[in-house]
Design goal:
2 copies of one chain form a homodimer. With about 120 residues, the first copy, chain A, is mainly alpha-helical. Chain A has 7 helices and 3 strands. The first copy, chain A, has one domain: Arc Repressor Mutant, subunit A. In chain A, helix 3 packs across helix 7. The first copy, chain A, binds a DNA duplex (30 and 30 nucleotides) through helix 1, helix 4 and helix 5.
DNA sequence: TTCTTTTGTAACAATGTTGTAACCTGTTTC
DNA sequence: GAAACAGGTTACAACATTGTTACAAAAGAA
C-alpha cells in the first residue's frame, strides 16, 4: 500500500482527532509556546510591544500569533482609544488552565538548557 | 516554579536563552509533540512503523523527527539485524522527565477538542 | 528468479512561513 | 507642517519544510 493510501485510511472519519491536531498545530507554531509562557508568567494584561520585546520576534509574527490565539479563544484583545494606541492582551480562562503544564514544561526546558552549557 | 529557577529565567544570559530557544524550536516542529506523546503512552520500546502509524505522517518526516530527537538525547535508537530490519526507539530518562507536563498538556488539548465538537 | 518485508535515504517540486520595508491611523508636540 | 508614538497591515522575496517518488539492503517465501 502506498504512503498516500495508508494516510487516507488512518485519518478517515476521525473528526475528533482533527480537533486535537488543530490544537497541536497551533501550539507548534513558532514563538507560540514562548508567547503563552511570558503571558502566563505575568497575570496582568500585557501590551503588544511588551510581548514582542519578551519573545523577541517581528511584529508580523507576534501579530499573527496573537490573532491565532484570539481566534482559538485563548487570548482576549482589548483596545483603548488612547493616543498613541494602547492594546492589551489577556489569557482566557481556558488558556490559564494550561498554565501548570506549561510551567513544568519550561522547568524541564530550563533544566536541560542548564545542563547543556 | 522554584525561586532559583525563576531567577535564572529572569536574568538569563544570551547563551542560555539560545539553548532554551533551541529546545523550543525542537519541540515546535511538526509531529514532535505527538511523537513524544505516543512514546510516553507506551513505556515499551516502539518500532518505526508503529510510531509512524500512530502519529500519521510520512516516513520522511517521522525519520527526520526521530533523528532530531536522537541528536538531542531524547530517544535512543536500537537496530536489530533481523530480516526485514527491526528498529526500536526508546525515550531516554531526560525525555521521560517531560512525561507529566506532556500528559497534562494533552489532557488540556483533549478537553478543548471535546468541548469544541 | 522475483516478490515481500522494514526501515530508512536522496532528490525535488510544491507549499508554507518568515522577516523586511513601506505604509496607515489619530492626536499631540516641536 | 512635520515628527513621533503604539499597534498594527500589506506585499513580497528569501527561506524552510513537506510529501512524493524512487531506491536500497538482506534473506526467506513462492
Amino acid at each position: 500500500m502506498s504512503q498516500a493510501q495508508s494516510q487516507r485510511m488512518a485519518s478517515m472519519c476521525d473528526s475528533a482527532r482533527s480537533h486535537v491536531d488543530d490544537l497541536l498545530v497551533l501550539l507548534s507554531k513558532s514563538k507560540m509556546l514562548s508567547i503563552l509562557y511570558v503571558m502566563n508568567c505575568d497575570p496582568d494584561p500585557m501590551r503588544f510591544s511588551e510581548i514582542k520585546k519578551r519573545v523577541d520576534s517581528s511584529s508580523t509574527t507576534v501579530a499573527r500569533r496573537l490573532g491565532e490565539l484570539e481566534a482559538h479563544g485563548l487570548v482576549t484583545r482589548t483596545a483603548y482609544a488612547t493616543v498613541p494606541a494602547t492594546v492589551e492582551y489577556t489569557l482566557t480562562r481556558d488558556a490559564i488552565a494550561l498554565q501548570p503544564s506549561l510551567e513544568s514544561m519550561f522547568e524541564w526546558v530550563l533544566n536541560r538548557a542548564d545542563s547543556s552549557l
